[in-house]
Amino acid sequence: MKALVYQGPGRRSWQEVPEPGVQTPTDAVVRVDAVTICGTDLHILKGDVPAVEPGRILGHEAVGTVTEVGAGAALKPGDRVLVSCVSACGRCRYCRTGSYGQCLGGGGWILGHHIDGTQAEFVRVPFADTSTHFVPEGIGDEAVLMLADILPTSYEVGVLNGRVAPGDTVVVVGAGPIGLAAITTARLYSPSRVIAVDLAEARLEAATRFGADVVIGADGDPAGKVAELTGGLGADVAIEAVGVPETFELCARLVRPGGHVANVGVHGRPVTLHLEELWARDLTFTTGLVDTYSTPTLLSMLGAGLLDGGRFVTHHFALHDMEKAYEVFSHPQETGALKVVLTRG
C-alpha cells in the first residue's frame, strides 16, 4: 500500500509500505476512505515533536471501513467508523475518568506519533472498540472527519477548559482550523462577543463567516481594541490557537483579572510566563491534549444539524495526491486552505 512517511525534519514521501495487520486481539484494520492533514503534522515536519521517528507514517484522523478485527474486538468487517486522534485502552486510571489523552495502557495520542498513522490506504487501530466511533447513517465522510481532532480539541481544550460562559467576551488568537473550531464551539455558550486575531486577511474573513463578531488583523492593536470593547477590563477568556511564544504572551495580556487563558496550540519553543506582571491578576492558565470524551456529544450535534463539519473543508484531493495536498495545506496564505480532505478514488 501507499502511505505518507516522515523522513526527518523537513522531509516526507508518499511511498510503498507494508500493509498493516492485526497484532493484538483488540486491534482492527481500517481501510481509509477519507483522511485529512493536521497542523500538528506540520509541527512534526518542522522537528517540533522529536518523539516522532523517521520512518513513521503520519496522520491521526480518518473515516474508514473496518476490514479485519482481532478476536477480542466487537467491531465487524464492513463497519463504517471515525478513527479518533486519541486511542484509549479503556481500563487505566485515566481512561476510567475520561482522560483518554493521558492513557497509561498504551493509548493517548499514538497514531502518527508513536505508531503508524492514518495518512495511508489502511491503518491498524489499537483498542479499536474504545478508539473508534460508529458513523451515523446519512452523514458524509468529510463532515464526520472534522470530529476526529479539530472540533473536540477546540471544544475541550479551548472552550471547556477556558470555561466560556454566557455573556463572556472571548478572544481567539489564531484563525486557522483550530481557531475557527473554537469560534464555532464557543458560540454554543452564548458569549456576548467573540473576537478573532490573526495576521492573514483570508483567515479573518473566514473567522467572520464562522461567527466572530470582531476581527483584528496585522495592522490592529489587539490589546487596545479588546480594552475598548470591554470598558478596560479585558476578555473573560483568551484561547491560544497558534503555538508560538508571541501569541501565548498576547493572550496573557488580553484577559481581565480573574480571566482564563486556554492554550490549544502545539508549542515547539519555550514560552515566557511573565509572572512579574501577572502574579496578582488571579489568572488561570490551562494546557491540554484533547481527550475526545466529547466526540459522542459532537456526533449527536452533527446528526441533529447543530454543527456543520463540512464547512471547514476548502480543498479536496484523491488519496494518492497526498504530496500536493501537503503543499496546499502548508501555504494557507497563498492557497486559502483551512482543512483539506483526501478520499479514496
UniProtKB/TrEMBL annotation:
SMART domains reported for this sequence: PKS_ER (SM00829)
Record-annotated Enoyl reductase (ER) domain positions: 10-342
Region (Disordered): 1-22
PROSITE patterns named among the record's database cross-references: ADH_ZINC (PS00059)
Keywords linked to the UniProt accession: Metal-binding, Oxidoreductase, Zinc
Database matches in Gene3D superfamilies: Medium-chain alcohol dehydrogenases, catalytic domain, NAD(P)-binding Rossmann-like Domain
UniProt-listed Pfam families: ADH_N, ADH_zinc_N
Superkingdom in the source lineage: Bacteria
Cofactor: Zn(2+)
SUPFAM superfamilies: GroES-like, NAD(P)-binding Rossmann-fold domains
CDD domains in UniProt: FDH_like_ADH2
Similarity comment text for this entry: Belongs to the zinc-containing alcohol dehydrogenase family.
Protein's recorded name: Zinc-dependent alcohol dehydrogenase family protein
Species for this entry: Streptosporangium amethystogenes subsp. fukuiense
Taxonomic classification: Bacteria, Bacillati, Actinomycetota, Actinomycetes, Streptosporangiales
